[in-house]
Every structure is written in C-alpha cells, then in structure tokens.
Amino acid sequence: MSMTTYEMARALEQLDEAPEKVMFGKLLNEMGNQSGERIRSAAKQVPIDVLRDIVFQFQQVIESRKGEQIEILAKQLAEQGISPEELQAYLNK
Q1: Which residues of 60-87 are buried (b: 16+ CB within 10 A; e: fewer)?
Q2: HSE (CB half, 13 Å, CA atoms) of 16?
Q3: Are 10 and 25 in contact (CB under 8 A)?
Q4: Which of 46, 10, 8 is nearest to 30 (CA)?
Q5: Do 27 and 11 form a contact (C-beta atoms < 8 A)?
Q6: Exposed, middle or buried: residue 11 (CB in 10 Å: 0-12, 13-18, 19+)?
Q7: Among the residues of the chain, which ranges form H helices?
Q8: Which of 1, 9, 23, 84 gives the lowest tally of CB atoms within 10 Å of its CB?
C-alpha cells in the first residue's frame, strides 16, 4: 500500500491536529518504502538544517536500538546452541 504525496501531506496535517505517535510511525515507515530517488527528490525540498536535524535524530534512534538487534542475535544463537564464548572464539580467529 503506497501513499500518494497528497495522502502523506494529509496524514501530516492530521498529525498536527491530533499528534499520534502511531500515525507518525506509520508515515515514517511508508516513507521508508519509497524509492531512494523519490526520497532524495522530496528531501531536496527541505531546508538543509532541517535535514541535518532529521538525520541526527535518526542516528540517535539507530544507536539506541542497536541493543535490540544484539539481543535478537543473542537469542537466536542461544536457540541454536551457540554460546557467547564460542562466538567470541570464532570472531577472534
């Protein structure tokens, strides 16, 4: 399900009326489903200082969520019977 530019603008307008984190998250997710070319084209319409702030905020979230990925990987490895020590030994080869 792809949103048109109008639908995305309408969603943002609704966000201003009733700031729902879930709606904004869905909008960001939908933006992530767009082609790189389309994202770059839209980003050219945004002031550079705003783009820098957006990128900074996303980098902060990525850093804070690294732990989630590590936990998922650790759980998957444990389910496969691989201990942290075995993984460390493998990585040190």
Answers
A1: eeeeeeeeeeeeeeeeeeeeeeeeeeee
A2: 5
A3: no
A4: 8
A5: yes
A6: middle
A7: 5-17, 21-32, 36-43, 48-79, 84-91
A8: 1
For residue 76, what are its two tokens?
Answer: 């998957």
- Model confidence over 36-93: pLDDT tens digits? 999 999 999 999 999 999 999 999 989 888 888 888 988 999 999 998 888 888 889 8
Length of the chain: 93
- Read off the tokens for 52: 């820098």
Q: Which residues contact 23 (CB under 8 A, 6 or more apart)?
A: 11, 14, 15
